[in-house]
Amino acid sequence: MLVSPSAAEEPKAFTCTFASGVTHSYDNGTFTAEKASPLAFGIAAIDAGAQTAEILTRGGTGHLRIVQAVNAMHFLEVVTEGFLHVTTIYDKDEAKGAYPAVHSRHFGLFGLPLVTQYQGFCEATG
User: For 55-108, what is each residue's pLDDT tens digit?
Assistant: First the structure.
């Protein structure tokens, strides 16, 4: 039987680095893909009970909502004009010593869809 770690053992903060990603922009009836620049940010003040956390970027701090899943935690950020960023951090890969993670950005530019998805890892910092 698998046993989940207790809430006291869950990390309260992460530093996340996404070395690779792809941006898909929509124009003239088609999506075009291009490589995205690397991305890094922190997630702190994780309170799974209250389903809240904070995102830490060079531009400042933002509020996150948490959705707990089996073997993963989703962090949702509603940004300017209602666009959505989602970060999913999966259970720790013991062999690698880090948490596999995916970060997606769903927004638009001049009324046209613009979406980006990154793959990377997070490290527990608290």
Answer: 999 999 999 999 999 999 999 999 878 899 999 999 999 999 999 999 999 998
3-class secondary-structure state, position 50: coil
Q: Which residues contact 46 (CB under 8 A, 6 or more apart)?
A: 10, 11, 12, 13, 14, 53, 66
* Residue indicated by tokens 């809430």: 7
Non-local (6+) Cβ contacts of 60 within 8 A are: none
Q: Which residues of 36-61 are buried (b: 16+ CB within 10 A; e: fewer)?
A: beebebbbbbbeeeeeebbbbeeeee
Contacts of 50 (CB under 8 A, 6+ apart): none
Beta-bridged to residue 59, according to DSSP, are: none
- In this prediction the pTM is 0.90
